[in-house]
Structure formats: C-alpha cells, structure tokens
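Subject: Interface between my chains keeps coming out wrong

I've been trying for a while to get a sensible model of this assembly. When I model each chain on its own everything looks fine, but I need the whole thing in one frame so I can look at the contacts. Pasting all components below, labels as-is. Any help appreciated, I'm running out of ideas.
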Amino acid sequence: MQWLEAMWSREGKGIPKDAPKRQGLALFVEIIAREFFELVKLNLLFLASALPLITLPAAVFASASICRMMVEDRNVYLLRDYLEAMRAHALRATVWGLASGLALWICVEAILTYGAKAHDNLVYAVPFAVSLLATGFIGLCSAHFVVLSVMSQRKVLTILKLSALATLARPLPVLAALGFAASLWLLHVLFYPISVFMPVTINISLGLFALSFAANKAARMVLGGIDKNATESAGGAFL
Amino acid sequence: MASISLNKLNKTFGALKVVHDIDLDIADKEFVVLVGPSGCGKSTTLRMIAGLEEISGGELRIGADLMNDVPSKDRDIAMVFQNYALYPHMTVYKNMAFGLELRKAPRDLIETKVQEAAKILDITHLLNRKPKALSGGQRQRVALGRAMVRNPEVFLLDEPLSNLDAKLRGTMRAEISKLHKRLNATFIYVTHDQVEAMTMADRIVVMKDGHIQQVDTPQNLYDRPVNMFVAGFIGAPQMNMLPSTIQRLGTGFVAVFDGQTLPLPPSFDARLIEPYVDRQVVVGIRPENFHEYVPADIDPAHTAPFEARMELAEPMGSEVHLNLLAGGRPMIARVSPRFKSAVGDQVRLIVDMTHAQLFDPETERSILL
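Reply #2:
Try treating it as a single job with all components included. I did that and got this:
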C-alpha cells in the first residue's frame, strides 16, 4: 500500500506565483485537466437533478454557475453550490427554458417552412435566410443569457439586453463552444457503443463548461460598465 | 491567556518511560523550541500537549485549566505536522476551511479567515489547487494556514521544516518567526535542528532521554551550557572537549592539556575551580575561539598558544574549518580563509580562554555555574 501513499504524498513541482497565466485554448485545456473529476461529478449531478424534466432548466443554470466558478478559478463545494444555484435560479431558469424552447421551436418551424417554399419560389429565400439568422441569434443570445444570469443579480430585462449585446459583440467564441458541445455528441454517436458512457460522465458538463468559458469574456465585457461586483469577482485571464 | 504549564509530566509506553517528570512553564505568546536528538521525547511531549498522546502522569495546564483529560479539539490548539497531513482529495481552500466547517462556522467567516490566512502566507494563487500539485514549501504553508484559520491560542509545530530543502528551510524559518510576531500566539516548536532552535526561539528547551537538560534563551544556552550535552548539542561545529588537569599558577589557575598550558581567566569564580585543582576536568572551547593571532579586543593574558596537527581543511567561503588533532583528540577550529596551512602541518593557533567552559568529567555538569 506504500505506493498508494507515495502517490498521494509525493511533492509536486509547485505552482509559481508569478508565472504568466495561460490564455485561450491553453487555459481551457488546463482547467479541464484540473477539474476533470469535478466535471464528471457535475455531469452526474446534472442528470440526477434534471430527471424530473421540469427541473432541467434549473439544472442547466446550476451547472453553468459551477462552471463559471471553475472558469474564474474559485473554490467549488460541488453539491452545496449546485443546490444553492438551483434554488436561486429555479424561476428564471424555468421561464428561460420555456421562452427559449418556444422561440427556437418557432424559428425551426420557420426554417422548415420557408426552406421548403424556397425550393419552389426564390422569394422565400429571404425569409428563410432571416429565419436562419434569427435562430442562430436566439441560440447564442440564450446561451449568453444563462451565463450572464449566473454572473449577475440584475433584472431579467437588463440581462436580456446584455445578452443581445454580448451576442453581437462576441458571437464566435460561443458559436465555437456550441460546436464543441455538438462534437461531443457526434463522438458519442460515432463511437457507440464504446462511447456509451460519454453522456453520463462528461458530455453535458463539458459542453456547459465550454459554453461558460466562451461566454465569460463577453459577459464580463458587457457587465463591466454596470455590474461592478461581477467584474470585481471575476479574476484570471479568459478567452 | 495561553500560558502552558507542565508539572511532573511523564509518559510511559508499557514498562518504557520516555518522558521523565518534566517541569516547564511557557509564557503567553512565547516562542519555545523543544530541541534534542531523535528519541529524546520532544515529539511525545508535544503530542501530550496536543492531546494526541495520553498523559501517563503529572499535570498539563493551559492557562489555569487542567487539560489532562480534555479532548484535543477542546484545547484551543492547532498542530502542524512534519508530513503536512493535508487531505489529498481536497483543494487548498477546503483543506484550510475544513476545521472551521467541522465547527459549523458561518460561511462568510470561513471565507474571510481562509482569504486572510492565504494572503498572509502568500498562497492566494493556490487556493483552488490540490496538494498534489504543490511543492513542499507550498504544502507547508497550507498546513500553517490550516492552523491559522482556527485562530488558536497555541500553535504546536512538530518538525514542520524537516521535509524541505536547505534553502526553503531558511526562508520558511524566517516566515514562521514573522508569523509568530504577527499572530501574537504561543508557539511550541519541535525540532532536532539546533540552527532552527537558535534562530527562532525566545527560549529553547534542550532534551535528552526524556529529561530536560536546560531551558534558557538561545544566547545563554550557547554561552552558559549547564552540561557537556548542551554544550555539544548547541553550536555548529560543536564545542571541542579537551580533557585537562587544573593547576594553580601564581594567584590564578591554568588547565593543562597535552602539555599545553591554557590560562583560566580571572572572571572564572576561583571558589568553584578550587576543588578541582590537580584533578581532571573537561575544558570546552568553541571552534570560533581559535584565532591565527591575538584579537585586538581580547586581553593577551587570557589567551594561549595552541599547537595541533592539521588533518583536513574545509573551506566554507567566509571561513575555513580546520580539522585538528591534539593529544590524540580530534578538534575543529574556525579560522579566516586567509589562514594557509597544509594537511599534516603542525599549526600554531591562539586560543581565547575567556569563553571557555569547564565541566566535571564524572557528572558532565558545568563547574562554572
């Protein structure tokens, strides 16, 4: 058993205080490596708490809240902080879930309808393109809304405005994060059944972490002028 | 009030008695170092104070309260261990907060205390890291931080720097001393390293075989050791012990070692030396009391030439340690790097007798105290 003790007690290289902080993708990988087991636990927690379905939006907000703490290199008491975040954001998350779901459903319906009609008449290509853009905008805006909500205590309308602003200011990182999350599911499908445990262990939390990481800089940017507390509490270098 | 009092404190393991009726009073806010070789009972004494070892006999009081049967957690003490004893699965923050969480402290208070301690120890950037990634020095800081957040009246430190490399030990030594001044708490520190003891302590307790040999300030221990063990243990390189014979010379006394006459200065109490005339004593001379020539600030009458054969020279940069052989006894002299001599040469040095010590060879106790 001594090897086991040595594994725990062996001294590390140390963490230099003044070493330059990693940026962008390098920081993203570093945090994942450091917090991997926490992300696995978060994934399990998410699945357990989202089982009743009605709690799904609150679980998303709670997970995003935990991910935001990881991004900001803050200490996380997983279960305690998760449950508190769920309780704190339950109402807003539920409204967000319903509104986003409805908006995206309308957008998808519009895309399908105008897409089919554009086949016969090119005039419908314009509303089809608008529907596509609107879907993308609402998707990105919705993602920013989640991150902004867990970062700030401001009113829904303000957060909504800030989400739109953040989406216009920095759409690409969140788009990349959504692509990353989608690729995790694609991997799951491609390598099934080897990847059978991916959704249970990491897919959801890692996807939400990517989203939180990507949206963090835009969120800080738009909150910077208004929500001083959020800016002050945010530390480290981000994407 | 965190004064600590040990009255006839002892510890036995079966038939083996490892701590023998120790009496020691430690003042509030004092930094006391227990020092001694391995197995002298210093860690056992500390663990009895901490409540980690049952007290076999005697009394332990913290303030006015008898603590013999008080559980460790109720003694308002915090202990830092040699191996850090951090929880490997917890982050630094959680390691530091754990004690307060167990006591159901409010979350805001925990946050404040952890951040404060982290700031003092300069480990704010480590709070969200696991111990596995930390170096020895960083781990030791975390262990100190974990003790600090509880704001105890008494800090017990059991060889906390032993696992660190020499450079880091020096840095941490200074940091612990600063911490003591800043926290204004009572510190009891166990070490086998006399340099740590000398540099950090308000008072040092020298222990051997479960007995206290001497309790005094570092300088007094160095200048006025009560016996040969303390004289040899404190100081590096250690004191040279020369078996000599005391003889009367005119109105004074001299010690004769290997045919060489060493005058005893008049500051030595003649009444204490008188009974040893024509008897064997041990003259203790520290390595730095050998010189190449008579120093300007010393009366030449209190010095004597001293001849020995050089066996080895160890250059230390700022000084040279000469390993000498005189009267068949190995000795060490600290001289300046300018001193030139070859191995095997008969060297002639000046010995300053004003700081010499005299010991009774049978009892090993100092004759001069």
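Reply #3:
Confirming on my end. The longest helix of chain B spans residues 166-183.
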